[in-house]
Structures are given as C-alpha cells and as structure tokens.
Amino acid sequence: MSEDSNREEIGDVEGDETEQHLEELPTGKxxxxxxxxxxxxxxxxxxxxxxxxxxxxYARQFESTDDAFIDGDxxxxxxxxxxxxxxxxxxxxxxxxxxxxxxxxNTADLEVKLEKAQADLQNAKSQYEKAVASSTLTISSTTxxxxxxxxxxxxxxxxxxxxxxxxxxxxxxxxxxxxxxxxALAELSKARAQVAQPEADTRxxxxxxxxxxxxxxxxxxxxxSLDQAHNVLLNARSRLDAxxxxxxxxxxxxxxxxxxxxxxxxxxxQALAGIDVSRAQLGESKGRLQxxxxxxxxxxxxxxxxxxxxxxxxxxxxxxxxxxLDLSYAKITAPEDGYVTKKNVLVGQLVQVGTPLMALSRSxxxxxxxxxxxxxxxxxxxxxxxxxxxxxxxGEAFRGKVExxxxxxxxxxxxxxxxxxxxxxVKVVQRVPVKIVFDSPPDKVHLLAPGMSVEPSVKVR
Length: 461
Description:
By secondary structure, the chain is an alpha+beta fold. It has three domains: 55 residues, CATH 2.40.50.100; 220 residues, no CATH class; 102 residues, Beta Barrel (Elongation Factor Tu (Ef-tu), domain 3), CATH 2.40.30. It is built from eight helices and 13 strands. A six-stranded antiparallel barrel has the order 2-9-12-11-10-13. A four-stranded antiparallel beta sheet has the order 6-5-3-8, with no helix packed on it. A hairpin with a 2-residue loop joins strand 10 and strand 11.
C-alpha cells in the first residue's frame, strides 16, 4: 500500500511538472496565423500578376486615342450673281434634298441684262450679215475682170444690196438705242426709288440728333452718345447724297440714250439716202473695173472682216447664254441632300458673288478622323477593324475599319508649320490623322454630326 501510494505521489509530482513545463513552452498559434497571411497575400499578388499579364496580352492588341472626332462633307452655298434676296425657303438645321429651292434672288436687273445681251446679239448678227455681203461683193468683183458687163451688173447690184443691208443695220441700231433708253429709264426709276429710304433715314437721324442735343444740354446723356447721333446723321446724309447723285447720273444716261436714238434715226435716214447714191453710181462701175488687179487682196480683207464679224456674233451669243445662266442662278437650289447649317441670309439682303449664305452638312456620309501618335502606327494597317465609342452615345458601340493614313503629320499642314532648324529643338511626339469609315451608315436614331468626339480602338494584332 505504501509503494502504491508513493508511486501515485511520484506520478502526481511528475504530472504537475510536465503540465508546468508545457505551460512554459510556446503554443505556436501566432506563427500559423502569420503563415496564412503570407499565403493569402502571395495568392492575391499572383492573381493580380496573372490578371495584369492577361490584360496586357489583351490590351496590346489594340491602339486607341481620345484625339478623334466625327468628320463629314460640308457644302458651302454661295450665290453666283449679285442681287437682292427676295425670299428664303429654309430654316437652320432643316433637312433638304437635292434640287430643293433654298433662296430666291430678285431678277429685275438680270432680266434687263438679258434684254441688252439679246439686242447686242441682233446687232452682231446684222454686222455679220453685212460682212458676208461685203465679202460676197469683193469675191464677185474678181469675176468682173473677166467680163466687163457682167462685172458691172454684179458690182452695181452688190452695191445696192450693201446699201440695203447698211440701212437694215442702221434700223437695228435704232432698236438697240431704244432698248438702251428703256434700260436707262429702268435704272432711273430704280435710282429714284432708292432715294426714299436715305431721305427717311436722314430725317430720322436729324430728329434723333436734335433730341440728343437737347438731352446733352440737360446733361442726361454723354458726349459719346451725342457724337454717335451726329455720326449717324452724317452717314445718312452721305447715303442720301449718293442716292441723289445716282438719280442725276441715271437721268444723264437717259438723256444720252435718247440722243443716241435721234442719232440712230438720222443715220438710218442717211442709209436710205445711200441706197439712192449707190444706184446713181451705176454709171461709174465701168471705171472701177480697172481696180480688178487688187481683187485678191480685197478678198482677203473681206474674209477677215467676215471672220471678225462671226467672232463678234459668237461673243454676243455667249453673252446671251451667260445672261440666261445668270438669270437661272437667281434661284439657288440644294446641290446635295443635307442639313442647313450656318444660315446667314435674310430677305432684302444684297448678296455678292461668293458670299457664304449657308452650308449643307451631309450627316449621312460621315467618318472618323483619329489623330494617333506616330509611335502607335507601327502595326496599324488599312482594313483593320475598329471599335468606335461616341461620347454622345456612351451605351452604344459602333464598328468600322481603317481606310487611309494622311501623308504627313497634322503639324506639317498647319497654318504655321514648325521650323525645327531654327532655335532650340525639343522632340515632340507627332500625330498622324487616320481616316476610319463605319461598316454601316449611322441610322436616324444615332445622329452623328461632324465635330463630335469619339474614341476609336484599332485591333492591330
């Protein structure tokens, strides 16, 4: 019993010592937690590295830029003749189709020019007929050397015919002079009509100037306001003086044209008298046969006159055609389908040739101009697919392809290209415009207008 008790006591003592020793040893739990943290962090870094590598493999297939915009054809509309605007048929941002009338110009002056050109054409035709007759007369005189009698009859007959043609020409000059009178009267009427507005402006400016002088005397307005009223009055008086001088000038042209009519009538009477004179010269025809030796030279001169008269007739016909074209230009139509933009024309406005009236934006035919850095063009080729993101439609994706590269950087074609040979040189990465076309035209829901910002991504691998 004592040995067993001793053993139990010894065992109890050893057990207590063992438990005390175990309590003094470290448990090892903090090392395990640190190991797990390192494992988790390493896994995250590994995942990030793998993900970054995969993203790099994917991203290296594309080249993109935010320096890109929508571009398209913009047609400028300008008049081909100078005239007052009679009516405007369109508004800003309106869709028009090819052939639609945009602006109608006043045709009064153009019609007068056409009438004058037609009168000049009739005169040129008369001159040509006269030259042909004269040439015929000269050629006929060459045959007169062979047979004196035949030559005398032919020469006399030709002389009479020439006199009649001259009378007809004088008659056409009367018609032309009368047409000139009508033109001058129309210009006089127009000049008189243009005096009313300057007179009204002058009266209004005078009243305004007087009113401001009164206010200035009271100290209610500044000297600048009074000077402006005086300046407006001076300008109105200048315009009135110019209009009155225009009336005087037009009146002078009317008197001159009427004097030309009287002169043309007198010339016509003289031409009729010339017919009798040519008939009276029949008896002298035999003596003129002695000049038959100069017939070849006379033929050459007469043929030259015919060619000159024919050229004048062609020029008059061209002038008539030009006047007809100018009259047709009074109706300005749309050359293509598009939207009206930059409208700058009003009824009553005097427009000059080439004045920009408006522009047509062909929004159904647009493309993208992307300014890529020169370092991005190594693998870029024509025909590569492109993903296009439009800022106006962030939720929509558009597809396209590379069509062409500009043969030069944007800075090279700028208004003031850089001169690298002067001053200190700093290397700057240049950009090259790349044209990208859409695979399919934009629909009506997505309005892609020139100037919109886009972000294209070209698949280069």
